Amino acid sequence: MAVAATSSTIGSFYHSRSQRGITRPRMAVRSSALSAVPILTSLQKNCATPLPVLRHVADAMAADMRAGLAVDGGSDLKMILSYVNSLPTGNEKGLFYALDLGGTNFRVLRVQLGGKDQRVVDTEFEQVSIPQKLMFGTSEELFDFISSGLASFAKKESGKFQLAHGRKREIGFTFSFPVKQTSIDSGILIKWTKGFAVSGTAGKDVVACLNEAMERQGLDMQVSALVNDTVGTLAGARYWDDDVMVAVILGTGTNACYVERMDAIPKLRSHMSASGRTIINTEWGAFSNGLPLTEFDRDMDVASINPGEQIFEKTISGMYLGEIVRRVLLKMAEAGALFGESVPEKFSTPFILRTPHLCAMQLDNSDDLEAVGSILSDVVGVRSDLCARKIVLEVCDTIVKRGGRLAGAGIVGILQKMEQDSKGIIFGKRTVVAMDGGLYENYPQYRRYLQDAVTELLGSEISKSVIIEHSKDGSGIGAALLAAANSNYAHEF
Ligand code: BGC
């Protein structure tokens, strides 16, 4: 909605529509919500992302990538080597599994690969939500829960898929947290993100944690590839399209990976790959340079379980947009009486307002913004007049616009870095950015803001050859493909 918070436009908040759709002025009643307008005006100013801000973010992203490639700890961006040095060719064959742990759910996937002609013959999957208490429990509890999910998935096969004698089922393990890979099938968890605070995993090899849990279950499975979700997405998308060079996740959390030349990674002089290329997991969620932040972002960060970390993620990803909006609205309610005199207790519950609520509110096209009113009443327990609802929508739009545009600037930063290193590799041809994650998939306004920023930064000509493509659930297939490519058994593909 394009209503700027000026006194002239706020005048239109004074009208309500009768059932016949005739606008009648509410002359005598001045909505108390209007006192929140100065807070809105200052929010819009502090969250603004005009072209120079976007340019600064894109340039800083490219510079931080270089610094992170030069030396470990050289910048906020970890620029982690994935050990994925060759991408799927399409020839991969056989039965493989993927296990995906990255947010509030974990998924198990069985993929039958049929080689060049048949490609993906069949997939089946099961999704299990992770009980909240396990996100704060012990490492053993979490991995036992995951491997029991795996066991029940495998049990349902009841002998349908036979593997050669003595052969274990091979898994591509997508683990979507910052991991320092030590090989294609091992890696040390650096820290948890996205609200996870499981004790006893940081500093440990997550594949060993899973293997031990699988042994406790007596499962005949083994991890052949450990991959970040961005890397799985890139591999999965590249299976169908050779022009995929970058993959981005915009969901609960956020991250990006891309195809890098080995000789452009000074910190890894000794490690060579036959292809001369590898995939770098940027862990861009930790980026923080030059972001337009507000008191609400800072307060949310201080109250988080990882203060001072993942600032880009906290500004643009799905886990946090709803919480930022809640904090703004709470201030408007307390200091500006946005919803009348009293503020219900539940309004103060962190993370009670979620990003899907913002999206549902922004999709409300009704004259009286009925859906906005019911979400506010159901979720945070307030009654709102039309004026308050319009202000709420303005707040949502401000935060979502900032997030989408900054994500777009981040993507351009990566493309810029790749292009600067080898002219023509990106901007001289069709280049695909594979994108996945619920925020991108389900939030049309966010998607539009992201695309607008990319077009503004690259100009209309160049941006035509940069294709941002939704690669739904590509990371599961991608992980299975990488398990196939790194199979421990002899294969002909
Ligand atoms: C993690 C990344 C992951 C991203 C998207 C971030 O919190 O640090 O490893 O790729 O979320 O799931």
Automatic annotation (TrEMBL):
Tagged with keyword Signal: no
Sorted UniProt keywords: ATP-binding, Glycolysis, Kinase, Nucleotide-binding, Transferase
One Pfam entry name: Hexokinase_1
InterPro entries from the UniProt entry: ATPase_NBD, Hexokinase, Hexokinase_BS, Hexokinase_C, Hexokinase_N
GO cellular component terms, A-Z: cytosol; mitochondrion
Key word Signal present: no
CDD domains, sorted: ASKHA_NBD_HK_plant
Gene Ontology biological process: glucose metabolic process; glycolytic process; intracellular glucose homeostasis
Family annotation (Gene3D superfamilies): 3.30.420.40, 3.40.367.20
EC number of this enzyme: 2.7.1.-
UniProt GO MF annotations: ATP binding; D-glucose binding; fructokinase activity; glucokinase activity
The protein's annotated pathway: Carbohydrate metabolism; hexose metabolism; Carbohydrate degradation; glycolysis; D-glyceraldehyde 3-phosphate and glycerone phosphate from D-glucose: step 1/4
Domain Hexokinase N-terminal: 41-239
Boundaries of every Hexokinase C-terminal domain copy: 246-484
Protein family according to the UniProt entry: Belongs to the hexokinase family.
Name this protein carries in UniProt: Phosphotransferase
